[in-house]
């Protein structure tokens, strides 16, 4: 469904089916994870989150003030995904609806919120554990219903396995479609665009930090390295300082130092909306060796680029080669240019 | 694959609406795919060394029903396997009693209101079997033939005895000179600069002396022969269409058994078509009309049963008058009562509707809804929804009454789907609850065959549109833009229709 634009021919191949299969596995694993943690909360009932009360949800459990920024972010993002799906389906844009659901579940819920939730779920505050399980059950229950029209079998199975269905006779296909949170709920729980923007920007910062790690061949995935962040505003710095433990977890870092408004030089760095994130090299990386490596790679990439440019400058090639091959070479050139820019930035940052 | 995509799209819509609390109905079902199904059963019969004629009509139709029971459930099984959330208690088949009644009712009303008529149409004809053939009943085979170059003098030029005397003539290439007496025009491509001076001229048809016009028509390929072709509307399907475009006379010069009739001229009447070919070539040569002959390889259609060379032949067929139906059907799209997604297909729809031609609805096969037109020996003809026991005019009994042997085009039942499946012509609770339906989903390749006709039928017989939205999705192709082939014969086509407070979704 993801590849289906209205009235446009659909091109299929096995990898398109694999997207669906992998997604099914992803949902299944998320379900097992949530179920495992819910089983540790006494008297917990998924059925309370099946939308029966018209999504006048018992979630989030506990006081609104105790919701974390990530809690508020995932709830607000679930709401936005629902709105995007409803708009898309009302306009028969099935691929947009499918992508909204896919992206929400995979990129937002599984990649970020579930990871963030682990710290609390494995933590020692039982009230907080119960609260997080409630949020997981609410958001996942909504997600299952949103995905159901596209993936009826796997969602039905999970609906029963997790006992969102109160009995065997019930079916997710008759469960109510999720309703947007009311204005009162949003106000009380703090579900607003500002929270979404901040947490999204923090996700971007983590993604940029991870890219820095992987650009240095000397750092293995299991290595703990030190990061430093220079926030653009004092407010962002305060928020990030309160979250250094979580940031360190996502970055695989030995520590994250948060500064404000400082220029970070002499280390690999990347600019993001919240500020600059940089890798501290001393101690963990042999800067000279990395420099040499980067220089070698730049030389190699430049060689490739010359070959491609020679082809694209050749009139005979342009006129005789099939259009698809010419396009391929053009794409290759763009790719090489982007790689080169990255490597050169890395070289610069190494001083 | 196309089915799976279409069914999935409909299922997404239906499940979404149902979860939102809308009153939702998705009617699953199939049409009877008249010609394709009859062919499959006839092929099976041939393995037993039998033809359908050996069984007779009733026994043959019985055989098709047996086959349908055995294999016809494939599509519906696939729908179930995909998890489509149809209302299975509403499953329908176009040959069901209820749907058949709707077909008879509609035909009879159209007959009485003069919305159907009998007219000439060109069909494939086997002179040995004495029957019309569907396009897929013809086997095309390579043939080493000839191309005869014939001179047609331009009117106003001097007529002489031998070729040299015709100072002003045009040259026409043909593979079938025996059809020459049926020519009613010659045609050139309008963009062919060699022949711009001929537009509006008249030429003389050799051997007959008849004057026929030179017409510009896009159908003519500049590269074929001389770029000038003879137009014989009664004996070639393309020429027939050219004839319709230009209002040409259709002169049928051949009998059903492949011999020539008196319209071919006294010299040729009674000759077999191939004998006639030799005679005409000889006469053209003698008259100085034959310029030269070339060897020519082409494809010639043969009867799949007896391997006789197939002819194109005019025959009486039933037609629906489309203009009066099309006007209303355009209006409801123009004023937004029906909306196409993507919107650009509305232009496709209007283009076709504005240039609509009458719809040939009769088929010379047995599997389908037999045309409910009856003729009494007294000469009276009428249409009726029930088999008559007596002639309403002279009172003669059933033994004096014969029914039209042809059946209706499968689409003549499919176009009623949105209301026939809900119980029409009875005033049912389902109709009141679900008509007009909401969404019709299908691929763009059947906008004309199906979507447009459903809109016409809904407006005409229900007085309201059959659905509010037409949702068109792409054709499924592999990564190299090919269509996955349907290697197996399609047994029946899915004709599901769904309704969210109400929806028909539909598929093929």
Structural description of this entry:
The complex is a heterodimer of chains A (351) and B (508). With 351 residues, chain A is of the alpha+beta class. Chain A has three domains: 14-191, Isoleucyl-tRNA Synthetase, Domain 1, CATH 1.10.730; 200-279, no CATH class; 287-349, Helix Hairpins, CATH 1.10.287. Helix content of chain A is 61%, strand content 7%. Chain A is built from twelve helices and five strands. In chain A, strands 3-2-5-4 form a four-stranded mixed beta sheet. In chain A, strand 4 and strand 5 form a beta hairpin. In chain A, helix 1 (14-38) runs antiparallel to helix 4, helix 2 runs antiparallel to helix 3 and helix 2 crosses helix 7. The mean pLDDT of chain A is 87. With 508 residues, chain B is of the alpha+beta class. Chain B folds into three domains: 1-18 and 85-115 and 321-365 and 409-477, 3-Layer(aba) Sandwich (Rossmann fold), CATH 3.40.50; 135-312, Valyl/Leucyl/Isoleucyl-tRNA synthetase, editing domain (Isoleucyl-tRNA Synthetase, domain 2); 372-405. Chain B contains 14 helices and 24 strands. Chain B has helices spanning 2-19, 34-47, 52-55, 57-71, 74-81, 97-112, 237-246, 273-286, 323-334, 345-354, 411-414, 417-420, 429-434, 447-462; strands at 24-27, 29-30, 92-93, 116-126, 131-133, 138-153, 169-174, 185-188, 202-204, 211-216, 228-231, 290-303, 311-320, 339-341, 359-360, 362-363, 373-376, 381-383, 401-403, 407-408, 437-442, 467-472, 476-478, 497-500. In chain B, strands 5-4-13-15 form a four-stranded antiparallel beta sheet. In chain B, strands 9-10-8-11 form a four-stranded mixed beta sheet. In chain B, helix 9 packs across helix 14 (447-462). The model of chain B is unreliable at 158-165 and 478-508 (pLDDT under 50). The interface between A and B is medium-sized, with 27 and 32 residues. Strand 1 of chain A pairs parallel with strand 23 (476-478) of chain B.
């Amino acid at each position: 469904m993801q590849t289906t634009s209205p009235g446009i021919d659909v091109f299929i191949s096995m990898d398109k089916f694999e997207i669906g299969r992998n997604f099914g596995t992803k949902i299944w694993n998320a379900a097992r994870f949530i179920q495992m943690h819910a089983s540790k909360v006494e008297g917990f009932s998924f059925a309370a989150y099946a939308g029966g009360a018209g999504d006048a949800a018992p979630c989030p459990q506990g006081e609104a003030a105790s919701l974390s920024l990530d809690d508020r972010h995932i709830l607000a993002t679930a709401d936005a995904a629902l709105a995007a799906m409803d708009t898309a389906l009302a306009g028969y844009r099935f691929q947009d609806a499918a992508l909204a659901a896919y992206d929400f579940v995979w990129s937002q819920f599984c990649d970020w919120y579930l990871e963030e939730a682990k710290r609390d779920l494995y933590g020692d505050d039982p009230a907080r554990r119960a609260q997080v399980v409630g949020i997981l059950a609410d958001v996942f229950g909504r997600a299952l219903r949103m995905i159901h029209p596209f993936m009826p079998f796997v969602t039905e199975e999970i609906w029963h396995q997790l006992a969102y269905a109160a009995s065997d006779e019930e079916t997710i296909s008759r469960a109510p479609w999720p309703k947007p949170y009311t204005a009162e709920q949003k106000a009380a729980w703090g579900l607003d665009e500002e929270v979404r923007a901040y947490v999204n920007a923090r996700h971007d910062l983590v993604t940029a930090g991870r890219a820095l790690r992987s650009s240095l061949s000397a750092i293995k995935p299991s290595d703990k390295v030190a990061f430093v962040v220079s926030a653009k505003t004092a407010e962002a710095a305060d928020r990030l300082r309160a979250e250094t433990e979580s940031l360190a977890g996502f970055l695989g870092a030995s520590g994250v130092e948060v500064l404000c408004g400082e220029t970070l030089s002499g280390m690999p760095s990347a600019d993001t909306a919240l500020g600059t994130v940089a890798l501290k090299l001393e101690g963990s990386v042999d800067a000279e060796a990395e420099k040499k490596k980067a220089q070698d790679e730049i030389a190699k990439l430049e060689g490739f680029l010359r070959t491609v440019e020679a082809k694209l400058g050749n009139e005979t090639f342009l006129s005789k080669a099939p259009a698809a091959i010419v396009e391929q070479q053009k794409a290759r050139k763009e790719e090489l240019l982007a790689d080169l820019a990255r490597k050169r930035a890395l070289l610069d940052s190494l001083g | 694959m196309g089915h799976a995509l279409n069914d999935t799209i409909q299922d997404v819509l239906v499940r979404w609406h149902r979860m939102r609390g809308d009153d939702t109905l998705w009617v699953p079902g199939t049409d009877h795919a008249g010609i394709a199904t009859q062919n499959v059963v006839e092929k099976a019969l041939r393995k037993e060394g039998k033809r359908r004629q050996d069984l007779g009509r009733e026994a043959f139709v019985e055989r098709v029903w047996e086959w349908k029971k055995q294999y016809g459930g494939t599509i519906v099984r696939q729908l179930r396997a995909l998890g489509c959330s149809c209302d299975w208690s509403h499953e329908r088949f176009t040959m069901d009693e209820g749907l058949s009644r709707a077909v008879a009712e509609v035909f009879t009303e159209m007959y009485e209101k003069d919305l159907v008529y009998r007219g000439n149409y060109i069909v494939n004809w086997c002179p040995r079997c004495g029957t019309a053939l569907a396009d897929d009943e013809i086997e095309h085979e390579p043939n080493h033939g000839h191309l005869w170059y014939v001179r047609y003098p331009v009117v106003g030029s001097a007529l002489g005895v031998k070729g040299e005397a015709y100072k002003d003539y045009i040259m026409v290439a043909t593979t079938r000179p025996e059809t020459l007496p049926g020519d009613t025009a010659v045609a050139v491509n309008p963009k062919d600069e060699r022949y711009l001076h001929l537009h509006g001229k008249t030429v003389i048809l050799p051997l007959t002396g008849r004057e026929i016009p030179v017409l510009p028509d896009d159908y003519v390929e500049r590269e074929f022969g001389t770029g000038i072709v003879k137009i014989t509307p009664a004996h070639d399907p393309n020429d027939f269409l050219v004839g319709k475009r230009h209002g040409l006379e259709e002169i049928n010069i051949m009998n059903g058994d492949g011999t020539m009739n008196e319209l071919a001229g006294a010299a040729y009447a009674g000759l077999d078509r191939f004998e006639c070919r030799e005679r005409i070539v000889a006469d053209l040569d003698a008259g100085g009309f034959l310029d030269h002959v070339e060897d020519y390889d082409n494809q010639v259609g043969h009867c799949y049963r007896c391997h006789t060379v197939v002819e194109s032949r005019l025959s009486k067929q039933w037609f629906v008058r489309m203009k009066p139906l099309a006007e209303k059907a355009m209006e409801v799209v123009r004023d937004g009562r029906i909306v196409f997604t993507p919107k650009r297909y509305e232009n496709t729809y209007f283009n076709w509707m504005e240039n609509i031609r009458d719809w040939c609805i009769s088929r010379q096969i047995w599997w389908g809804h037999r045309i409910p037109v009856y003729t009494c020996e007294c000469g009276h003809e009428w249409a009726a929804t029930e088999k008559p026991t007596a002639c309403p005019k002279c009172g003669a009994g059933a033994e004096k009454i014969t029914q039209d042997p042809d059946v209706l085009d499968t689409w003549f039942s499919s176009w009623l789907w949105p209301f026939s499946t809900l119980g029409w012509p009875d005033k049912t609770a389902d109709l009141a609850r679900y008509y007009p339906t909401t969404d019709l989903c299908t691929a763009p390749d059947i906008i004309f065959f199906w979507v447009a006709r459903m809109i016409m039928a809904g407006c005409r017989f229900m007085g309201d549109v059959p659905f509010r939205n037409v949702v068109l999705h792409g054709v499924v192709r592999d990564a190299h833009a090919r269509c996955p082939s349907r290697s197996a014969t399609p047994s029946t086509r899915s004709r599901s229709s769904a309704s969210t407070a109400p929806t028909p979704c539909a598929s093929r």
